[in-house]
């Protein structure tokens, strides 16, 4: 039953992601790529689409994967799945707010979760880097594709560190990609 | 009695519309949403205070799920209980849901065009840079110390080399954090 599987997969993603946004990528890679709902290249493309459309990344990717695999109903199931854990947990937390805030167990768990998220995003970064630089799974040498990607990546990184808006960076990379593609006939 | 009820309904509708606006104008999600919530919920509507925003951010960070959803649910609940939470959450999700649904049908048709392929070839390099930046931001916000570095590299190695499921890594790191901070407290107390 594809709808139930979409719901459960995204429920799991919603339940075990702390910090939101890119912290979600490792678990999405695991769930969505393993089930063959997306390939790694499309996932990277979609991260860009999500940056350029409104709303949280989690909702965007859930809606997208849901609609690609199960149409309109699939989109509803996946989105409901990713939203529900936060919704329920926040309701609980809001009710027991004072106790939650000063809870030693919650505080302790956070000292483990914050660095864990850094490590997991590090792993996601490596996977995405492999998708960008070794698209076919084997390193084919320093081609034009490789060189253009490397230069663009460095420029985009400098711009991101200077707090230039991600949408602007993505638009610029798109323009550069089109220009390089036609000029070098990639 | 009915007057109170209609008043409540009016504010639930208002919550829905306000969060729909917030959801519709946040690009990149998460922390990009905080300034918008500030403007709408604090300055325009006076629903919550400036201090509430800090509190909400802290809560949203220490609970699972996207920051945007967490903050919307929390503010909605504070104002109107469960119906308020449902209205705010639905409002914040709806714009992205509709936009992505529309895009997903269009995108499939354009994906194979040559210029689109080239555009995404460039964009992928940019996304890599954005993730690298997110990694640095997360690293800076992370407490530094021996325990932190052990967890960081442990989580990385477990995911990258040992292919341990992400959920298992998250649970182990949370337990490790609870145990080490309890041990640290005991040492300072004795």
Short description:
The complex is a heterodimer of chains A (186) and B (190). Chain A has 186 residues and is an all-alpha fold.
Oligomer: heterodimer
Count of helical segments of chain B? 7
Main β-sheet of chain A, in a few words?
A: none
Number of strands of chain A: 0
The domain tally of chain A reads 2
Shape of chain A: globular
Measured distance between first and last alpha carbons of chain B: 59 Å
Parts with pLDDT < 50 across at least 5 consecutive residues of chain A: none
- Beta content of chain B comes to under 5%
Beta-strand residue percentage of chain A: under 5%
Write down the Rg of chain A.
19 Å
| Structural class assignment of chain A | mainly alpha
The description of the largest β-sheet of chain B is:
none
Q: How helix-rich are the residues of chain A, as a percent range? A: over 70%
Q: Whole-number average pLDDT of chain A?
A: 87
Low-confidence stretches of chain B: none
Overall radius of gyration of chain B: 21 Å
Strand tally of chain B: 0
Indicate the percent of residues in helices of chain B. over 70%
Spell the H/E element sequence of chain A.
Answer: HHHHHHHH
Task: Please trace the helix and strand order of chain B, writing H or E for each element.
Answer: HHHHHHH
């Amino acid at each position: 039953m594809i709808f139930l599987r979409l719901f459960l997969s995204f429920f799991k993603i919603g339940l075990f992601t702390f910090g939101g946004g890119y912290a979600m990528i490792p678990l999405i890679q695991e769930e969505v790529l393993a089930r063959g709902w997306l390939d790694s290249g499309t996932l990277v493309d979609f991260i860009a689409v999500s940056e350029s459309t409104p709303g949280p990344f989690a909702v965007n990717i859930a809606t997208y994967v849901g609609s690609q695999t199960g149409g309109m109903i699939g989109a509803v199931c996946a989105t409901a799945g990713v939203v529900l854990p936060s919704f329920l947990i926040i309701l609980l937390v809001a009710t027991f707010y004072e106790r939650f805030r000063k809870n030693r167990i919650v505080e302790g768990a956070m000292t483990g979760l914050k660095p864990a998220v850094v490590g997991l995003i590090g792993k996601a970064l490596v996977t995405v880097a492999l998708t960008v630089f070794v698209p076919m799974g084997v390193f084919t040498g320093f081609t034009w594709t490789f060189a253009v990607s490397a230069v663009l990546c460095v420029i985009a990184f400098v711009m991101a560190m200077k707090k230039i808006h991600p949408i602007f960076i993505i638009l610029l990379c798109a323009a550069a990609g089109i220009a390089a593609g036609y000029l070098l006939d990639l | 009695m009915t007057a109170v009820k209609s008043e409540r309904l009016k504010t639930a509708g208002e919550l829905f519309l306000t969060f729909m606006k917030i959801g519709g104008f946040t690009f990149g999600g998460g922390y990009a949403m905080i300034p918008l919530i500030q403007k709408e919920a604090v300055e325009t509507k006076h629903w919550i205070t400036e201090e509430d925003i800090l509190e909400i951010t802290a809560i949203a960070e220490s609970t699972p799920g996207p920051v945007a959803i967490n903050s919307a649910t929390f503010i909605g609940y504070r104002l109107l209980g469960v119906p308020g939470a449902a209205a705010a959450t639905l409002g914040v999700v709806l714009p992205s849901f509709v936009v992505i649904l529309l895009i997903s049908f269009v995108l499939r048709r354009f994906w194979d065009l040559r210029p689109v392929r080239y555009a995404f070839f460039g964009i992928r390099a940019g996304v890599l840079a954005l993730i690298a930046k997110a990694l640095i931001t997360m690293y800076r916000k992370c407490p530094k110390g021996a325990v932190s570095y052990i967890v960081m590299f442990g989580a990385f190695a477990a995911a990258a080399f040992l292919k341990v499921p992400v959920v298992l890594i998250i649970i182990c790191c949370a337990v490790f954090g609870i145990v080490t901070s309890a041990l640290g407290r005991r040492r300072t107390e004795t």
